[in-house]
Amino acid sequence: MSSAREQVFPTRMTLTTMKSKLKGAQQGHSLLKRKSEALTKKFREILKKIQLAKLQCGKLMSLAFFTMTELNQANGISNQDLLYLNIMNNVTTSKPRVSINAKVENVSGVFLPILESNIDNSVNDFKLIGLGKSSNQVNKCIEIYSKILETLVELASLQTGFITLDDVIKITNRRVNAIEHVIIPRTENTISYINSELDELDREEFYRLKKVQEKKQQKEAEQMLADKQKKAEEKLQMELLRKELEEKNIVSEKEEQKEEEPKNLLKEDENGDEDGVIF
Question: pTM of the prediction?
Fold first, then answer.
């Protein structure tokens, strides 16, 4: 799983998204880790309370058994008779002696039920028991069984919270492990892949720009060389034209001179020679 990555297109936008996802995964991992630690701490506290409650309940049950036996021997009636009388008294009583209140405790986002037992001592469900004798033993038995009821209610509340926390801790630990060993490594591998691809694209772009610059410089050099050759040719042509013009001027001057020579001779003949013959 460490070499796995997400199938994404390597762009800078995807890189930004993956970085945001990695940051969120790391924050979520941190929060879930602290939540797991808090739940584990509460779980251990409840476990200790359950152990103490079970020990206390066992002791109270043993003491209640011996107290009930003493009460039966003192009154000369059986447990069934006492239970029957108790039921009859409870049925005829309009107000219950024991009530249970349910509350909720929030532990790192987990709601744990809390049960509390309330005993109304003003209501006496056992007023028909022990009227003739052993009223002290009856009161002692009532007190012990009341403590057992409170302990059982507390134990039920602790057991419910224990089971709820156990399930939530397992789910939280699975999420922590999934984020730590799957999501974060996969996201990091994806980011590394995108960075490597972007670096490769940058190198290719740099090489391409370098080649374009070299071709541009080469083209400019060729253009400059062509311009120089063109200027040299133009200069050479100008020189040739200038020489031709000079030669034409010389020829035209010579022709003019040749044309002027006969005229000069004719003028001389007119002035000095009668025949006009040139020897």
Answer: 0.63
